[in-house]
Task: inverse folding
């Protein structure tokens, strides 16, 4: 029981990290398209538990790292990358520190508690909570309650940063235990011009290649937030011609397995008409494969756009979409 292990170290049980690394490695070796082009294992904090009890059991996560966030903020209308994960829990749930350190509170974020590790480089943040600690207080991992989940949020937003850069808590060997056996799914490919679709059976001129792709939460989320999708961690694509001839090699559209880009790159990854999940509305995730692609650089003819979507555990789905380039008028 969790109550018999109240203090897990920041490095945590090595068995979690080892199992996650072995599973991720096996998936990479078995997939011809899941080719890491970022150092996904470049983590600086390893093997820590969940911020809500039981610490050693996986909890539902209803928002993934890198999901789109769109709406009004104190700074105005913003479109940004989700810089943590949303751990589902009832309002009022105690939220615990997940590392030893010092509390940092900010007056302009009254529902946020940050814990800075003694090394001064690592910071864990807990958003949408009613704080139960004071600024400058020293806290102990898995013993100190930093706050309680605040209504009406029904979750705690949990974020990890190192030297000011946010890291994906669900990367291999970090937050655990965490397992995911679901696979992303890919819905639709379109060629857009100024946000309007051009039929892929007659693609011509300069277009934005856009794909819709989704992932499923590994554990069902309770309540009104259940059944809503999250985003894949990695989306790649290529173009092939007759006989599988490679016309355009594999290229990465998004890679949120370890880090997210700055928010000024949001529109280079999420296409127009993307929307985030709401209580009474399912999100729509439209990814830019290639913006401003001049289809005239490819000879007229029939091709296949292959799209590979992977989650942070390496589960991969590949979809193949026929496309016809038709820039010259028919004779």
Result:
């Amino acid at each position: 029981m969790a109550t018999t292990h109240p203090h897990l170290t920041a490095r945590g049980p090595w068995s979690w990290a080892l199992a996650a690394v072995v599973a991720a490695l096996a998936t990479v070796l078995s997939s011809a398209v899941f080719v890491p082009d970022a150092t996904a294992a470049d983590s600086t904090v390893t093997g820590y538990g969940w911020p809500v009890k039981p610490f050693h059991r996986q909890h539902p996560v209803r928002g993934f790292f890198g999901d789109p966030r769109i709406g009004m903020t104190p700074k105005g209308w913003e479109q940004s990358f989700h810089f943590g994960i949303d751990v589902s829990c009832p309002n009022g749930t105690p939220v615990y520190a997940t590392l030893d350190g010092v509390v940092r509170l900010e007056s302009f974020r009254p529902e946020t508690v940050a814990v800075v590790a003694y090394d001064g480089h690592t910071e864990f943040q807990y958003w949408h909570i009613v704080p139960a600690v004071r600024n400058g207080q020293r806290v102990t991992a898995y013993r100190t309650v930093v706050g309680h989940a605040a209504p009406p949020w029904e979750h705690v937003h949990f974020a990890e940063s190192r030297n000011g850069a946010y890291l994906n808590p669900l990367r291999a060997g970090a937050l655990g235990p965490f397992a995911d056996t679901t696979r992303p799914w890919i819905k639709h490919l379109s060629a857009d011009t100024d946000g309007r679709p051009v039929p892929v059976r007659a693609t011509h001129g300069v277009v934005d290649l856009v794909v819709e792709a989704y992932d499923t939460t590994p554990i069902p989320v309770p309540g009104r937030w259940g059944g809503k999708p999250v985003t894949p961690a990695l989306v790649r694509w290529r173009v092939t011609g007759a006989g599988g001839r490679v016309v355009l090699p594999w290229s990465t559209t998004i890679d949120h397995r370890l880090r997210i880009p700055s928010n000024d790159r949001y529109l280079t990854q999420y296409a127009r008409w993307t929307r985030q999940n709401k209580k009474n509305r399912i999100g729509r995730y439209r990814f830019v494969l290639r913006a401003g692609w001049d289809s005239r650089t490819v000879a007229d003819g029939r091709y296949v756009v292959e799209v590979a979507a992977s989650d942070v555990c390496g589960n991969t789905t590949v979809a193949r979409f026929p496309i016809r380039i038709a820039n010259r008028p028919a004779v």
Summary: Residues 1-43 have pLDDT under 50 and may be disordered. The domain at 185-325 is CATH 2.60.40.1220 (Immunoglobulin-like). The CA atoms of residues 300 and 330 lie 11 Å apart.
